[in-house]
Design a protein that fits this description.
Chains A, B, C, D: Belongs to the PurU family. Chains A, B, C, D: One of its GO terms (molecular function) is formyltetrahydrofolate deformylase activity. Chains A, B, C, D: This is Formyltetrahydrofolate deformylase. Chains A, B, C, D: One of its GO terms (biological process) is one-carbon metabolic process. Four copies of one chain form a homotetramer. By secondary structure, the first copy, chain A, is an alpha/beta fold. Chain A has two domains: about 80 residues, 2-Layer Sandwich (Alpha-Beta Plaits), CATH 3.30.70.260; about 200 residues, Formyl transferase, N-terminal domain (Rossmann fold, 3-Layer(aba) Sandwich). Chain A has eight helices and 13 strands. Chain A has a seven-stranded mixed beta sheet, with helices on both faces. In chain A, helix 4 links the parallel strand 6 and strand 7. In chain A, helix 3 packs parallel to helix 8 and helix 7 packs across helix 8. The first copy, chain A, is globular, with a radius of gyration of 21 Å. In chain A, about 45% of the residues are buried. Chains in contact: A-B, A-C, A-D, B-C, B-D, C-D. At the A-D interface, strand 11 and strand 13 of A face strand 11 and strand 13 of D.
Chain lengths: ~280, ~280, ~280, ~280
């Protein structure tokens, strides 16, 4: 029966990999719908993403690829389907709203399990779309106590990715570790400029002529994780930092949606602290 | 009593206009919060937008400005408040959805009277936000007949601007004339490239490396009205025209929102077939 | 003896091409330094550019690839070396100057045979760099007569590409045909907007908010050839068309240099009226 | 006799400044060719740049303006003419070459006194344009000793601005102080990201998706001076840091030229650590 898979391989570089992998596809009479490779010469790492179609058994294909690839190879044969996500937010609606609208249009390629926020502000918006909204106030709680409560809610859901749609709280290493490689954040600056709190104010005070937004995976070091996508917006002396913040929102939501689309289509490899994106 | 006004003046250029107008403000002890002028040397036209605050009478201020400006001057003293808009759409939700989210966040600076569409597709989305949705099918109707029905609905609303949020029908001169200077459209190309139907397909076939979007006022000549804002998105040979269309949507919604913000803040002058934007 | 080649293949699409081609490389123990493919699904065409290194015989490799590719395959095994170019110009120095500076820095990857112009203006600049400058005035000549004189000079040089660095004359079909696929032009607009004469004036009169530049191969239809690279520059109502022209020059020279680099590194396939760029 | 002046005023904000200043122009029957103001509300500072034409005496005009402006006002009545510049460089020719080409075309609006470099590399290029080239090797010298030698050469020239066209040496506070407010640098990153040495390598290692360039005035804190202009170039995982460096050069030269044009046309005010640009 005709089906389609995304095959992702990353391993240390070796001679003949393209040949050997494409032979596996050829021997099974599979069509290559698209194919991209990259070799990081410095790290001697090989990355390949191929979309194949034809009549194949997923496990058999996986095993066959394992045979021809180096031992350290990470091989994924992924049958495309909607991934599951949960969303964390605070008060701002632009990034979250953009995701909700895309979801409504059937363009998100994901199922939203729930939206968790540390304020009530966004309840009306989320519930308009019949998506569970859970608010967990941080009032009177330590950071750890609040996170425990958030994690208790999150673990009711299975999900592939957690999206921080302007979630304005710092995460502890415990939290990050619990969802390692699954958390996607939007930072409202052109990283690594203006790490930390209130980047628009920092940008305003530095007098920059361009502001930016960065979508990245979250790792232990705040705002230091692998970058997925960035964009920029020109500004000038006439904008107050509040106006920069407002102007920046369009950039934030667009870059988050772009990053999400890349991740949800399995187009993003992470290695060391970088991404390879096909 | 302290209040604020946007003062917009356009007229033929003459010596001393800045002096004379600023004297009117000075004599009334008004603060100038911001001020911008422009002289179109070729057409010998003067444009000025000043935000003043203080204690003034709107009519008296208007009259005083009339005294010092040339006879052909168009003078507007506008007390900032939310403008009223109606929205026309078809099936796509990205531009409309972006407006709804901004409206929900209180950032639109407008009140949405209703959304009128020639299909039912967007009803659920619009009604989620408790905004009247009116669908008027064009099935079996001539263009004129359909427009008459649309106009019958529209005239139930008072509005400052009509926003075409991907309304995929051509308007007749009668319709355009009825709402002259009030209709804002988003055209899904970098005008004047790819005027007319299916610009993404045209762009794909031409093999361009950048696609764009244009927000403009609608005049009789299709896609030929004064341009308010434009933006662009890089593309390459790997994108099908459907993928270009999808990639272009972010550009469309962002440019429409930007144009709307400019218009709703009274920052846009139209002269001949161009805009002056402060 | 270790050497390196760029292998370019384009042909109709067929199953197993990646496998068969990579097998040819594998059987000869060649390293793949980089590899990119693309399938145009609509036209059913396959494109592949691979950089291989190792010990090989160019002709033998070419023959081996011919054996495994479809009959219509165009196969090129190119040993990297500086290409030869001639430049046509008129009066403006920005695009030409940029090429001369790159050449002086050893970054052009080309040898400039000569600069031919229809005015004397640029002689001093070109001769500063010890490059032959030939001016052929068009005064009193028909278009055909002038072109004959230009072609007489050009044919003294062997060259891979002819670069029109703001050559402000329309070429006849005879001329274009004589150097088919070799002529690279910079058009000072975001094609297909503002085809023809004085695009900055056209852009000014249309009141656009962004202007552009386009580098493309020249074909019979003026400004209609395959696009290699494009870029854009934001403008506003304050710029006269002369100021747009001046602002546009940076875009022109950058886009021409980018296009030249792509072409000179054999990264550009032309098919139908489009480019595939790796 | 008809002449033209750029009038620049900056002072603390006060009511009626536009009126009072424009009255001075009106009373002298001067035309306002263009006029821009800005009030920094946070710092309560007023900035105004007006181009006037007519029959006036520069000193009388200056005095009259002084009468109507606050005591702290900095007033400049500038008759447009070419400014004088000196250029410092090291080995790279792209930014320097761009300036030389513009100068040759009469588009620089400046006179180049000399080019001083700490290497011999650029001598041929500079001397092609008949501009004095002075190389001062830093070999065997302390930073201070080298700077003393550079300053000895520089002081032979009168100049309005010193342009660091990729001068790859750190300046001491003594040097910066000696030419306070006159030194324009191009930093090869999107400041404040990647301050310090080898920003392309830093950018590569951080895995950014956009690189940038920044033109700024030099102050004591390295790379911390007021920003004049910035731009960006998209990059991806396929570029090595050397390739990023190469790709970045176009951005560097364009942003330096843009900044230079702004400064040489007296369009840039510096206040605190920021610029106001008209």
């Amino acid at each position: 029966m005709e089906k389609r898979a995304r095959v992702l391989i990353d391993c240390h570089d070796a001679k003949g990999l393209v040949y050997k992998v494409s032979k596996v596809f050829y021997d099974r009479d599979l069509n290559i719908d698209s194919n991209r490779e990259f070799v990081d010469k410095e790290k001697e790492k090989f990355f390949m993403r191929t979309v194949v179609s034809g009549d194949f058994d997923t496990d058999e294909l996986n095993d066959a690829l394992k045979t021809v690839c180096p031992d350290d190879a990470r091989i994924r044969v992924i049958i495309p389907k909607n991934k599951k996500i949960v969303i964390l937010a605070t008060k701002e609606s632009h990034a979250l709203g953009d995701i909700l609208i895309r979801n409504e249009a059937g363009e998100l390629n994901a199922e939203i399990g729930c939206v968790i926020a540390n304020h009530e502000t966004l309840r009306t918006l989320v519930e308009r779309f019949n998506i569970p909204f859970i608010s967990i106030s941080a009032d009177g709680l330590t950071r750890d106590e609040h996170e425990v409560k958030v994690m208790q809610e999150i673990q009711k859901y299975t999900f592939d990715y957690m999206v921080l749609a302007k979630y304005m709280r710092i995460l502890t290493p415990t939290f990050v570790k619990a969802y390692s490689g699954k958390i996607i954040n939007i930072h409202h600056s052109f990283l690594p400029a203006f790490i930390g709190a209130n980047p628009y104010k920092q940008a305003y005070e530095r007098g920059v002529k361009i502001i930016g937004a960065t979508a990245h995976f979250v790792t232990d070091d705040l705002d230091e994780g692998p970058i997925i996508a960035q964009n920029v917006i020109p500004v000038n002396h006439r904008l107050s930092w509040k106006e920069m913040q407002s102007a920046g929102r369009d950039g934030e939501k667009v870059v988050l949606s772009r990053a999400l689309a890349l991740v949800l289509h399995d187009r993003v490899f992470v290695h060391d602290n970088k991404t390879v994106i096909f």
